[in-house]
């Protein structure tokens, strides 16, 4: 069955403004069903979770449904909610590092978003642990398995790796890296923020100990999600308030959860599940966009064999910020920068300025791609 992009686009009120959105990697537009779920929860009778009053039971059901829905969506055991992926990673870096000793080792990659680098680097500094850096191939945009595995030792405590680069789209072989890390008894912490909107996620198949993502990247509200086995979470002791629950996963959730955002997350997952043929559709548009950009002489940095529908490019003789501005004037939202993948941008030789990033999403259609290419052509 052909992907019905017109039917999908009808659910996005934001598209009525007329812009062509290639900025989804920074935060997707939201379908009407998600907004309605948020609104309905905010305007319902709801209170702190419990089992006595109707409002307590309603809050409890919202949380339970969101946990169950996310666990099924990710094929994971237990779900922890937080304000953002960044906040969750800082919390878990602090918790895990309680057991680190001088001489222990942490592996991070040059490809990752800073949210999966800096929390580990800073926790390592506090524990006097050693940080090992895994480089990627600048020419191909690939992160070879051996680039990470050759750094492993019996002192490795955590391997922090992306499932898909938010800058290049590259999808490393996380499962193979995880298997090697587990042979050294190291934990594997996977940033799935850019991966989850485009690829069916199976946390168990990835062999990730921790997998984090952000619903607002897959059509939901601003929130962070961490998935892990409940047995693993039981072994961790985060700093928390004394009266708050010590049950898993509640012990990792600091304060009252945002019930309206959990309801919106449930709605976003249900909407994503309805999008049959999405991955193939997005791949086709990416190939059309890349082919057109090459014909126009743009320099493309996204070259990995396995990647998301995301393209990082530049136009010779023009500052990326200027390209961004001029595309925006044509109603094409394709921003420029390093997008918090600072190490990745610097490793590519782009410095802190980065380049222009165009990401395909569920609501992107061929006319959007045509508008992007026409706007780039006008830059020459």
Write a concise synopsis of the structure shown.
With 380 residues, this protein is α/β, with parallel strands linked by helices.
Structure characterization notes:
- The chain is an alpha/beta fold and 380 residues long.
- 38% of the residues lie in helices and 14% in strands.
- It contains 14 helices and 13 strands.
- A seven-stranded mixed sheet has the order 2-8-7-6-5-3-4, sandwiched between helices. Strands 9-10-13-12 form a four-stranded antiparallel sheet. Strands 1-11 form a two-stranded parallel ribbon.
- It is globular, with a radius of gyration of 21 Å.
- This is Cysteine desulfurase-like protein.
- It holds the Pfam family Aminotran_5.
- Residues 22-372 form the Aminotransferase class V domain.
Give structural attributes.
380 residues, alpha/beta, 7-stranded mixed beta sheet, 4-stranded antiparallel beta sheet, globular
Largest sheet: 7 strands, mixed
- Portion in beta strands: 5-15%
Number of helices: 14
- Sequence stretches where pLDDT stays below 50 over 5 or more residues: none
Helical fraction equals 25-40%
Tell me, briefly, the overall form. Answer: globular
- Indicate the structural class: alpha/beta
Please tally the β strands and state the result.
Answer: 13
Q: State the order of secondary-structure elements, H for helix, E for strand.
A: HEHHEHEHEHEHEHEEHHHEEHEEHEH
Question: Quick check: average pLDDT?
Answer: 97
């Amino acid at each position: 069955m052909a992907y019905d992009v017109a039917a999908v686009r009808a659910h996005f009120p934001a598209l009525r403004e007329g812009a062509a959105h290639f900025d989804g990697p920074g935060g997707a537009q939201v379908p009407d069903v998600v907004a309605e779920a948020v609104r309905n929860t905010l305007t319902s009778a709801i209170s702190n979770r419990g089992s006595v009053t109707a409002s307590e039971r309603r809050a409890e059901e919202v949380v339970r449904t969101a946990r169950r829905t996310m666990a099924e969506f990710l094929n994971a055991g237990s779900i922890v909610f937080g304000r953002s992926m960044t906040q969750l990673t800082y919390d878990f870096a602090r918790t895990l590092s309680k057991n680190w000793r001088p001489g222990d080792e942490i592996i991070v990659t040059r490809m990752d978003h800073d949210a999966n680098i800096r929390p580990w680097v800073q926790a390592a500094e506090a524990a006097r642990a050693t940080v090992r850096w895994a480089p990627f191939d600048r020419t191909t945009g690939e992160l070879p398995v051996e680039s990470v595995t050759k750094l492993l030792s019996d002192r490795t405590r955590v391997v922090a790796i992306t499932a898909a680069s938010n800058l290049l789209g590259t999808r490393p072989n996380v499962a193979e890296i995880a298997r090697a890390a587990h042979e050294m008894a190291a934990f594997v912490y996977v940033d799935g923020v850019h991966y989850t909107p485009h690829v069916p996620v199976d946390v168990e198949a990835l062999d990730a100990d921790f997998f984090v993502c952000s619903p607002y990247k897959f059509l939901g509200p601003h929130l962070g999600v961490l998935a892990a086995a409940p047995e693993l979470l039981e072994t961790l002791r985060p700093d928390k308030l004394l009266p708050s629950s010590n049950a898993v996963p509640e012990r990792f959730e600091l304060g009252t959860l945002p019930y309206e955002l959990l309801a919106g997350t449930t709605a976003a997952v249900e909407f994503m599940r309805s999008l049959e043929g999405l991955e193939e559709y997005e791949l086709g548009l990416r190939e059309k966009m890349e082919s057109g950009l090459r014909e126009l002489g743009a320099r493309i940095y996204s070259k990995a064999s396995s990647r998301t529908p995301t393209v990082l490019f530049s136009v010779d003789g023009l500052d990326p910020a200027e390209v961004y501005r001029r595309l925006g004037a044509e109603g094409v939202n394709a921003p420029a920068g390093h997008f918090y993948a600072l190490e990745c941008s610097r490793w590519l030789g782009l410095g802190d300025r980065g380049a222009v990033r165009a990401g395909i999403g569920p609501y992107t259609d061929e006319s959007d791609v045509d508008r992007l290419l026409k706007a780039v052509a006008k830059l020459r």
